[in-house]
Each structure stands twice: as structure tokens, then as C-alpha cells.
């Protein structure tokens, strides 16, 4: 066990939080029953650094505390620390960092917060990806469901033969199953929308912390932050409070927007006149401008996009998340939305429409160029293409199918559909 002579006394003028954390660390080290020199070697640090941690003069990264817990588990041959112990020590660690106020402690705190925020963002991304996969699977299921249902019974389809009441009962059951699947799709869309917003918020939080950490490290090293202008930032805050942001010099505003979080940039752009926001976005870095549009209020974003060239807007939408494109296009007039979709990358349009509600997708598809819609459907699997056709009006769907790849069209609906007497025509799915 480290002797009392090996442990330096607690530092003078420590905050209560730093004293508590140092006391916990000292108990962990004492319980190891080894010398300070060996303990430091096991933790891959010098003895002086460990001594300063144990006296409270410096606050270690939480990684050091985790290494100490693992060392204690190995040396004492005990069970790993419980989640309660880890959470307790993390709480003490965070409190000690906040109470210190020194630049170095603030940097450590920002690093810990950035790592935690990045973990949250990664979890949000994984959840969004899982929900996206589940939604696509459900959409393909219902598309295949409808394609099978449209097939004539004598061609091996799902329609039963027999007494009329049996047929009627079958169709009632089929419609119930289909409605249950549609309800599941709507639930997945709601959850995906929520997960998407959570991911954006988590990424904005991580980006904001990263900027704060860069600034703190510059200040600790004695390097001035590039283009740092506290007076300009104060003026932006004052103008925002007074409602006079539109009167601020654009170059001065840009120098500030380049150093603040995307979420704050979006808030500033939301408060500008749309024409002024267009001017500012045009001068911004492309990636920052795209990120700002994603975080802006959809109504304001649409007002801004309406003042930009259609081709330029289409290129911007091509770089954005399909889910966010749906939100923006849903705010647009249908004609303008269709023109934008006609200009966008076909593969991206296909992803966008798969995220859109059925009525919205149908509205867009009915107004897009038929040849372009047919070319887009040719890129899809039969089940996905069938789902898109199902969103359109029957006459429009028939026109599109005539322009599609014949092999793909044949997989969606039998050639007998184009003759007379097809059950598909009788159902009114794609009939004239």
C-alpha cells in the first residue's frame, strides 16, 4: 500500500468538488496496495502527474479514471465496477471540472462533452439507419402485396375462386392486412422523422462543442483565434435583439457566421428577410450553406429557395438528406416542386419519393415529366416501382408504364392488362 509519505497532501484552495474527486481517487489508489511508482507505470504516466491528480492540483481526463478502475479490477481480482460506480465517478468528475474555472479544466470538460455528444450523434445515426431499413422493407412488402393482388386469379394470383361470400370474406381479410401494414408504415415514418430531428440536433451540439474546444485550445496556447472579432459578435447579438439584422454589413455577418454553430446560423437566417438570406447563403461555404438550410425553419427555407435559380436549388437538394428534401418540397407549390425534381439527380429523386407520404409522392409524380419518371422507375426494383405507380392516378400510371422498360413493366403487371377484361382494369388500378 502506498505510504502516507508517498501521497502529497491535498492542494490548497481546492473547490469542494475537486476535493471530493481527489479523495475518491486516493481511496482507489490506496486499495491497490502498490507503490506510486508502480501505479503510475501501470497507468502509463509519470509519477509526478499521478501525484498532481491525487492531490487535486489537476483534474485528469475521465479516461484516466476508467484506466484506474480497470487496474483495480485486475490487481484486486474483483468484479468490474458497476454502472452505478462509473456514473458516480463521472458525475464527480464533471462537477470538479465545472467548479475549477481554469482554462485547462475547461478544455478537459469540453473534450468530455464533445466525446459524449459524438456518441449520442452516432447512436442517433444508427437508429435512423435502422428505421430507414425497416421503412423500406415495409414499403417493398406492401408494393409486392399490391402487385400480387392485382394479378388475375387464373394466372396464379392470390384471388380465390368459389362462392361469392368466400371471395368477399377473402377480400375483407386482405384489405384488413393491407391497412395494418399501411398503419405500420405511417408509424415508422413518424419515428423516422423524430430520429432524423434528434440526429440533426445531436450533430449540431457536437459541432458547437467542437468549435468551443478549438477556441479554448487557441486561447490556452496564446494563439489568437483567426478573424476573432468580439465587437462584431456583440453587434450581431444586439441587432438580433433589436430586430435590425437586415441592416448589418454582409461581410461582417459572414465573418461571424463562419465561427458559430450551424444551429445558430440557421436561427440568424430564419430572422433575415428571404432576399437577404439568399445573399448571405450565396457567399457562404457550400457545406455550411447546405447544413444551414437543413436546420432552418422549413417555411423560411422555402422562401429562400424560391428566390434562387431552379438549377442551383436542384443541385443543393441533391446534396441534402432525402428526408429533409421531402420536408422542403412539401412546403413548395406542387408545380415548383415538380420542376425541381425534374432537375435533380434521378437516383436521389427515387430516394426522396420513397420517404414521402403516398399522397405527396403521387402529387409530385403526376406533375413530373413522364419520360423522366419512367427512367427513374427503371432504376428501381419491381416492388419499389410498383409502389410508386400505385401513388399515381390510374391514367398517369398507365402512360408511365408504356414508357418503362418492358421487362420491368411485365414484372409489375401482366401483359394481359393492356388487352381487355383484365381484373386489374376492373379494379381501376392503372386503367383508363
UniProtKB/TrEMBL annotation:
Record region (Disordered): 204-232
Keyword Transmembrane helix applies: no
Segments of skewed composition (Basic and acidic residues): 204-230
Gene3D superfamilies xrefs: MgtE N-terminal domain-like (1.25.60.10)
InterPro entries named among the record's database cross-references: Cro/C1-type_HTH (IPR001387), Mg_transptr_MgtE_intracell_dom (IPR006668), MgtE_N_sf (IPR038076)
Pfam families from the UniProt entry: HTH_31 (PF13560), MgtE_N (PF03448)
Segments forming a coiled coil: 107-141
Residues in Magnesium transporter MgtE intracellular domain copies: 260-360
Superkingdom, taxonomy of origin: Bacteria
Keywords: Coiled coil
Protein name listed in UniProt: Magnesium transporter MgtE intracellular domain-containing protein
Organism field: Catenulispora yoronensis
Amino acid at each position: 500500500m502506498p505510504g502516507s509519505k508517498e501521497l502529497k497532501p491535498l492542494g490548497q484552495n481546492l473547490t469542494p468538488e475537486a476535493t471530493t474527486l481527489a479523495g475518491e481517487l486516493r481511496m482507489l489508489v490506496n486499495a491497490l496496495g502498490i507503490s506510486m511508482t508502480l501505479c503510475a507505470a501501470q497507468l502509463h504516466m509519470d509519477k509526478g502527474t499521478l501525484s498532481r491528480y491525487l492531490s487535486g492540483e489537476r483534474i485528469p481526463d475521465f479516461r484516466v479514471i476508467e484506466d484506474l478502475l480497470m487496474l483495480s479490477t485486475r490487481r484486486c481480482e474483483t468484479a468490474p465496477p458497476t454502472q452505478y460506480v462509473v456514473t458516480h465517478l463521472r458525475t464527480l468528475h464533471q462537477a470538479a471540472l465545472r467548479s475549477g474555472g481554469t482554462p485547462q479544466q475547461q478544455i478537459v470538460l469540453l473534450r468530455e462533452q464533445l466525446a459524449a455528444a459524438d456518441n449520442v450523434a452516432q447512436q442517433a445515426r444508427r437508429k435512423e439507419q435502422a428505421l430507414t431499413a425497416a421503412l423500406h422493407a415495409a414499403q417493398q412488402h406492401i408494393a409486392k402485396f399490391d402487385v400480387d393482388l392485382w394479378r388475375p386469379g387464373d394466372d396464379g394470383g392470390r384471388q380465390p375462386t368459389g362462392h361469392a361470400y368466400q371471395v368477399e370474406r377473402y377480400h375483407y381479410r386482405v384489405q384488413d392486412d393491407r391497412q395494418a401494414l399501411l398503419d405500420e408504415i405511417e408509424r415508422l415514418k413518424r419515428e423516422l422523422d423524430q430520429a432524423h430531428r434528434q440526429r440533426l440536433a445531436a450533430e449540431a451540439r457536437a459541432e458547437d462543442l467542437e468549435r468551443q474546444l478549438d477556441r479554448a485550445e487557441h486561447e490556452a496556447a496564446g494563439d489568437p483565434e483567426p478573424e476573432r472579432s468580439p465587437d462584431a459578435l456583440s453587434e450581431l447579438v444586439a441587432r438580433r435583439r433589436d430586430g435590425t439584422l437586415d441592416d448589418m454589413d454582409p461581410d461582417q455577418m459572414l465573418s461571424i457566421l463562419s465561427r458559430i454553430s450551424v444551429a445558430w446560423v440557421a436561427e440568424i437566417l430564419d430572422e433575415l428577410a428571404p432576399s437577404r438570406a439568399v445573399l448571405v447563403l450565396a457567399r457562404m461555404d457550400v457545406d455550411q450553406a447546405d447544413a444551414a438550410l437543413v436546420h432552418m425553419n422549413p417555411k423560411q427555407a422555402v422562401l429562400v429557395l424560391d428566390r434562387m435559380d431552379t438549377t442551383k436549388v436542384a443541385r443543393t437538394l441533391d446534396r441534402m438528406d432525402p428526408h429533409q428534401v421531402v420536408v422542403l418540397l412539401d412546403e413548395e407549390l406542387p408545380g415548383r416542386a415538380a420542376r425541381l425534381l425534374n432537375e435533380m439527380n434521378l437516383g436521389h429523386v427515387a430516394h426522396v419519393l420513397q420517404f414521402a407520404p403516398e399522397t405527396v409522392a403521387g402529387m409530385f409524380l403526376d406533375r413530373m415529366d413522364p419520360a423522366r419518371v419512367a427512367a427513374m422507375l427503371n432504376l428501381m426494383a419491381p416492388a419499389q416501382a410498383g409502389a410508386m405507380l400505385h401513388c399515381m392516378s390510374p391514367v398517369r400510371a398507365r402512360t408511365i408504364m408504356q414508357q418503362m422498360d418492358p421487362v420491368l413493366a411485365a414484372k409489375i403487371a401482366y401483359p394481359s392488362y393492356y388487352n381487355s377484361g383484365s381484373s386489374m382494369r376492373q379494379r381501376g388500378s392503372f386503367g383508363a
